[in-house]
Specification:
Length: about 110
């Protein structure tokens, strides 16, 4: 996967990249992306979200990936993402990498 040479990814900020339909996209764990994920999956509770993400469904992965893509500046819709060619293994690794930037008491959140 080639990274976008115009922008250096800031992994401390939760930025990573993924290839969707042959196009490179940046992912970023922003507060907006986190709120979008929490609203869609967490029932309004960060603790419930943590519990659900211990064993996510493919639908959960798509919702999370979509929120992170939006956080990275992509305008891709969830419907288009669902129909896109995305390597699920690479997607889950990119999501984990983005969430790896969050720490509470020096322990990763997820």
């Amino acid at each position: 996967m080639k990274l976008d040479k115009r922008k250096t990814l800031n992994q401390i900020r939760g930025e990573t990249a993924i290839c969707v339909d042959g196009q490179n996209h940046n992912l970023c764990l922003t507060l907006g992306a986190l709120a979008e994920i929490e609203d869609a999956l967490g029932g309004g509770s960060f603790e419930k979200l943590q519990e659900r993400l211990k064993s996510p469904s493919i639908s959960d992965v798509l919702i999370i990936l979509h929120a992170l893509l939006r956080g990275g500046g992509s305008a891709i819709t969830l419907e288009l993402l669902k129909a896109s060619d995305v390597d699920v293994h690479k997607a889950t690794k990119a999501i984990a990498k983005a969430f790896g930037s969050i720490e509470v008491n020096d322990d990763p959140v997820f």
